[in-house]
Amino acid sequence: MKRQAWVLLAAMSVLWGIPYLFIKIALTELSPPVVVLGRTLIAVAVLLPLAYRRGALAALHGKWAAIGALSLLHVVAPQLLITYGEIHISSSLTALLLASQPLLIAVLALRFDASERAGARKLSGLFVGLVGVAAVVGFDLGGGDRLELVGAGLVLLAGASYAGATTLVKKQLSDVPPLGVVVGTTGIASVLLLPAGLLAAPETLPGLDASAAVLALGLLSTALAFLVYYKLIALAGAGSAALVSYTSPAVAVGLGVLLLAEPLTPATVLGFVLILLGSWLATRKPTPKAQPTTTEPAGTAPEPAPTAQRLPALTR
């Protein structure tokens, strides 16, 4: 990847490594629909005036069907699934299970994305990564109750939803300014979540910790994170952008262990390593073969190389 893509990946690792901690804090006083609605409303409130001034919403013309689908796949469904899942499992385990996203993208690519389809090496990566997921779930929840298994299942479903969203962005929305995409998706999500959020609203105002957690989720892990993520997809592709799903867990696990006293066992670390290895194999691009050099006849100017095709810039 280019240097700019690595910088964006590092930023995403932090932005999507911290939400699991904040979700845990917010859930001490708020229900999942309220938490998710709060973060989407904050993102819309911050970004809508900026999108209007920059004319980013005009770029959504003719794209509203894709924006609506993305809103469900990348905001409503996964954020509700993750938030409900974290009621029953730790923030660290949530992040580790979501590290399977590159594997899920590779699975979807078998049917929907010829540019990222899995060959023999990638299929072996899928197998190794899925063994890692099974190890993480088996060792962490082997003696757990059914609710913990349900929580893990909800998080894995969220990962599948994120994988579908990543492929959708690459195929239909990579030429749209990310500011418009974020405002469109979070705006639609807020409308869809509003009835459930109002019904589940607390009778009294939440405390400072829960309020600050929702604010951080909206500003950092939703508004800013989506902007960076969509740009990363356009710059480096869906598979490379999904690397964040197994770099951000390192941040999430560290915060869970240090601040929430969550356990970290050797078996969990081993499972995570298998997920990382499998994801790397499943998303690694083959090394291009060197092209034979040709000698131009004397006195003949070499034919100019074609300009490299670029994805349109996603910022203005």
Task: Describe what this molecule looks like in 3D.
With 316 residues, the chain is mainly alpha-helical. It has one domain. 70% of the residues lie in helices and 0% in strands. The chain is globular, with a radius of gyration of 21 Å. The relative contact order is 0.22.
Helix fraction bin: over 70%
By DSSP, the count of extended strands is 0
| Helix-strand string | HHHHHHHHHHHHH
Number of domains: 1
Largest sheet: none
Cα shape: globular
Which strand-content bin applies to the residues? under 5%
Terminal CA distance reads: 22 Å
- Mean pLDDT, to the nearest integer, reads 79
What low-confidence regions span 5 or more consecutive residues with pLDDT below 50?
293-316
- Helix/strand class: mainly alpha
Rg value:
21 Å
Count of helical stretches: 13
Which key features would you list for this structure?
mainly alpha, disordered C terminus, 316 residues, 13 helices, 0% strand, globular
